[in-house]
């Protein structure tokens, strides 16, 4: 976590402010003391890490790879990248939307390989696009998923 913060060029206070937590809580997390999952998630979001990275490190596991997005990118970056995905199995071009709790929950399922988690997220996005298109065209059966 410290290395990620220093890569951003941030002080502990700046990282805490960006994550929306107190400096005391941030210091506890960076020191490896137990903090809430939501605290880890907030820090991971601003330091550009995948959900579950710091908890895995705290548990003694290998850290997850760095997220393909940086702080401040969210739905807009995902929308731009989503259409450019060529190979769902490899996840090339995939960007996790950390602002979508459904995606975060899916990606946190660590007993599934990363490629399967990405596949499930892409399928969910596809269904969402189809529902929006159906709603815009007035086909309420399709929009509600009952068709």
UniProtKB/TrEMBL annotation:
Residue ranges, annotated region (Disordered): 126-147
Gene3D superfamilies: lambda repressor-like DNA-binding domains
Pfam families (alphabetical): HTH_3
Domain of life (superkingdom): Bacteria
Domain named HTH cro/C1-type: residues: 1-54
GO molecular function, one term: DNA binding
Protein name per its UniProtKB record: Helix-turn-helix
